[in-house]
Design goal:
The protein has 80 residues and is mostly helical. The radius of gyration is 28 Å and the shape is rod-shaped.
Length: 80
């Protein structure tokens, strides 16, 4: 059995943790609002999916740049 002081301590701990949860939920709402307003995404999942698409595009562009650089180098060598 718990003593009265132990129960009161547990009660305060629960209340503190409930407050912390409420604060974190408020912060999450603020971040979700910022995500929507600044980037137009309605969810974190949607933003992550878009990042994956952008990553794929970056890889493709990097490959195209590398190929173009190689062609330019070959053209310079051929002109000499």
């Amino acid at each position: 059995m718990y003593t009265e002081s132990e129960l009161l301590r547990k009660k305060r701990q629960i209340e503190d943790e409930k407050q912390q949860v409420a604060e974190l939920q408020g912060e999450l709402k603020g971040l979700e609002k910022q995500l929507k307003e600044q980037w137009g995404f309605s969810s974190l999942k949607e933003a992550k999916e878009h990042i994956q698409v952008l990553d794929t595009q970056i890889v493709t562009i990097e490959q195209e740049i590398e190929e173009t650089c190689q062609l330019l180098e070959e053209m310079e060598v051929g002109d000499e």
